[in-house]
Each structure stands twice: as C-alpha cells, then as structure tokens.
C-alpha cells in the first residue's frame, strides 16, 4: 500500500465529516474559546494513542501469536462494519451522554470518536504487514490526523458550507469507499492464507 493510500484510508476511518454533528453536540455547552482548547487537547491525546499502537503493534501481535492473515481478515471485517454504519448511520449519537457544563476528557472525543477500535486495528495491521515502513505509516497517520484536525477545528464553517444534507452525503460516500477497501483487504487476507497454507 502506498503512503497516500494509507493516509486516505486512515482519514476515511477517522470520519471527521461524520463526527462533526457529534462533536458539535458534545461541546455545545462549552464556551467557544474553551471549545478550541478541548479540541486541541483531545486531538493530541488521540494522536499519541494512535502512534503508540502503530509502534507497539508488532510486539502486541507477536505476544498474541497472531498471523498476518488473521489480522488482515479481522481488520477487513471491522472496516466493513464501520463502512456500513457510515452508509446507514444509527439514530442518535454520543452527544446525549454528556450533561450541561460537563467537559469531555479522553472519552468520548479522543476515544472512540477519533482513535476508535477500527483505526487502532488498522494501525496494528499496517505495522505487522510491513514493519520496515514505519516512517511511511507515521507520515500517513500524521497526514490523516492533520486533515481531521483542520475539519474539526473549523467545524462551524464546514457545516455552514456543506449543510446537514451535504455532510450526510459525504459520509455515505466515504462509507462506500471504506467498504471497497475492506473487501479488498478481506480478499488479500484470504489469498495470502491459501497461498501460504
């Protein structure tokens, strides 16, 4: 996988456009100035967690004695489910879980909204499949995270420009792309398993 392809895939999994309404809902009771501070803090925490998973991925998989094919297939299934959820979003969201005046810390913004199980599993997979390309994967993660940061920091502007229907359409399109990536990952995993069996 090329670095740019990996960055696009990670960006799609982070799904900042789909998370915009949830972030807005969670932070609506917080002052505008404080809102930016919270966003930056949560984004940095999420980046630190994702980097840790990327660089410790190989050790975790070796400790669990997992084969590359198992990780590839399970990662594909996770991405497939995330893609389905993006195309057919569930009713409601995480916004209702915080009361007025509450300030989120780590949960639910950093985890699972940005650094969710799907992206952590994908980073484990990348680190395991090609551990000699950690610089590429780091650049891909930083690129995806940077674009996510820009979108979330200027969320009000994006929502005004695109509108609610536009956001929903973009999320469904991103979900379709993610589904295609997940199917390819699944097929690669199956092919690799029968080749090495």
From TrEMBL:
Pfam families: MarC (PF01914)
Residues spanning the membrane: 6-27, 39-57, 69-88, 109-128, 134-154, 175-194
Compartments (UniProt record): Cell membrane
GO CC terms, sorted: plasma membrane
Swiss-Prot/TrEMBL keywords: Cell membrane, Membrane, Transmembrane, Transmembrane helix
Topology versus the membrane: Multi-pass membrane protein
Family the UniProt entry places it in: Belongs to the UPF0056 (MarC) family.
This protein's name: UPF0056 membrane protein
Species name: Aliivibrio sifiae
């Amino acid at each position: 996988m090329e670095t740019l392809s990996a960055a696009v895939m990670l960006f799609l999994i982070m799904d900042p456009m789909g998370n915009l309404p949830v972030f807005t809902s969670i932070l609506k009771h917080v002052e505008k100035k404080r809102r930016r501070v919270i966003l930056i803090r949560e984004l940095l925490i999420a980046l630190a967690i994702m980097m840790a998973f990327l660089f410790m991925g190989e050790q975790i998989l070796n400790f669990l004695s997992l084969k590359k094919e198992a990780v590839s297939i399970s990662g594909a299934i996770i991405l497939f489910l995330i893609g389905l959820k993006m195309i057919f979003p569930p009713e409601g969201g995480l916004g209702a879980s915080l009361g007025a005046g509450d300030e989120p810390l780590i949960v639910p913004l950093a985890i699972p909204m940005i650094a969710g199980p799907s992206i952590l599993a994908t980073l484990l997979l990348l680190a395991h499949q090609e551990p000699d390309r950690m610089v590429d994967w780091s650049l891909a993660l930083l690129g995806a995270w940077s674009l996510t940061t820009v979108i979330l920091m200027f969320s009000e502007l994006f929502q005004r420009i695109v509108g609610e229907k536009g956001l929903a359409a973009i999320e469904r399109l991103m979900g379709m792309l993610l589904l295609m990536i997940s199917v390819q990952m699944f097929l690669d995993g199956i092919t690799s398993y029968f080749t090495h069996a």
